[in-house]
Amino acid sequence: MDVAIPPKVTDRAFAQLAAINRSADQAKSLRVAVEGGGCSGFQYEIKLDDAAEDDLVLEKDGQKVLVDKVSLPFLANAVIDFSEELIGARFVVENPNATASCGCGTSFSI
User: Fold this and answer.
1) Is residue 19 a part of any domain in this protein?
2) What is d(CA 36, CA 50) in angstroms, rounded to the nearest whole number?
3) What is the CATH number of the domain that holds 61?
4) What is the residue range of 36's domain?
């Protein structure tokens, strides 16, 4: 896995984060992390959070997306996007490192 290429965040994802922060009492960053578990071995954790000291911070128009250093190799060259479909709206990760994923969209294997 090439850790030199950080993940990219789409304009749509930054715009959705801005909309969430406009409706909240205080602005938060979007954390995208990879954890062990899920039906394919790894799963994404996507939540609102505050930055930690060793996070990679991807920023646009004052909005921040955070990736911790442990998750970074798993997200090299990935795309973090926001998707609105009939089944619901959510942040999604398009990960070229994943060799398989499950139907839920949050679990993958490498």
Assistant:
1) yes
2) 22
3) 2.60.300.12
4) 8-109
Q: Which two tokens stand for residue 61?
A: 């128009």
Tokens of 51: 């930055």
Neighbours of 78 (CB within 10 A): 24
Dig out the tokens for 82 from the structure: 């926001």
- 77 alpha-carbon distance from chain centroid: 12
pTM of the predicted model as reported, rounded to 2 decimal places: 0.83
Q: Residues 107, 43: contact at Cβ < 8 Å? A: yes
39-92: pLDDT as tens digits: 667 888 999 999 999 999 999 999 999 999 999 999 999 999 999 988 888 999
Q: Which residues contact 30 (CB under 8 A, 6 or more apart)?
A: 13, 17, 46, 47, 48, 49, 63, 64, 65, 66, 80, 91
**Cα separation, 79 vs 99, whole angstroms:** 15
Tell me, rounded to whole angstroms, the distance of Cα 87 from its chain centroid: 19
Contacts of 70 (CB under 8 A, 6+ apart): 33, 34
